[in-house]
Amino acid sequence: MTLAPAPVDSVDFAPFRFRTSAPLTAPWLRWLGGALRVAGRPLERLAAPPSDDLTAILPALRVHGVAPLLYVRLRDDPAWEALPPAARAALVDAFQASATRAFSLEVALGEAAAALAAADVPVMLLKGAALGRLVYGSPAERPMSDLDLLIPARRVDEGMRALAALGYRPAGLSAAGRLGRWQRRYRCEAPFVAPAGPRGGLLVELHWSLVELPYYIDRIDLDEMWRRKTPAAGLPGAALPDAADLLIHACAHLALHHSGDARLIWLTDIDRLARSAGLSWAAVVDRAERWGLGLAVHASLGAAAAWLGTPIPADASVALTRLADDPVGRAMWGLGDDQPGRTGRRARASWQAFSPRQRIRYAAWLALRAITQPFEAGRGGKGAGRPPAWKRYLKA
To answer: What pTM does this model have?
Structure first.
């Protein structure tokens, strides 16, 4: 492989912004885009790094979750020997740390899946747990900080009890029965934390909807998603969503929950899914339209294409461009971002998008939420006033 000067033109990720804690210059972003394209295929003519000091950006690469994947892309290529020894050692360490973490998470995932299966609770893998199996060479290439599991809304009580039997403790929603169902009506997930032992600090999130925004909780039909599931190899009782569902979810997660603090690994997820052999672009367009996620899918794929050259068929691109012209989608954009005042903005946008009947149900839920939220956050007593436990366990 011949090294050539790196391009220095800017990379257009609009309308997304990256985490301020992990800044990367345009030359580095361009070089990374070339290095991380299409994992598993031979590297094309890769430009030389913008600087010999690759170690200077390794903290940012770890935050963005791409250091292990960069190691895998470079280790068997002549570009590897051109890197300084300190950079090679740091990338090896990043991959080994990710592999160790992946092994620990796989053990915990197996235990959780077995416990849910024993309780007759169907479970599908989401986010990194699914992507590491489907579109990366191994789970070590796709770092995870927690486990995301989708279960049917009607089986949440049984799922919570199954995790509790393994020693996990709820770090938020915990009510059962009718109160629990009402409490969860316009929520998406319940976080559980392992307080001690080999899983100490591990966060497991039980999801019963794909997007934690009330408008989408009502709009997305998960029954059809369950009908499309396929078995997860090596995890008895667990399943995987189909590629179109995973792609739409990845785009929605980025656009609705992390538009202002994006990570590069989420764009590589989208790129890998868009290139997967089993993807139906007709299904992507159809579900994006029916679920009201055309803008999220269009913008996220556009950012991935700008950085990684993600291929989008012409007819799908035209259809998604049309779907992106959606006033409701624009109103929902970024409402899940962790920003001051998001609760009020989310409530106002949901109210405006809802029908009169939905507004009655949503108003009742908001009233209940106002009563129960203090108990979720602090559980009273010495914990009162503290932030929810799950926020203390999520990585920065």
So the answer is: 0.90
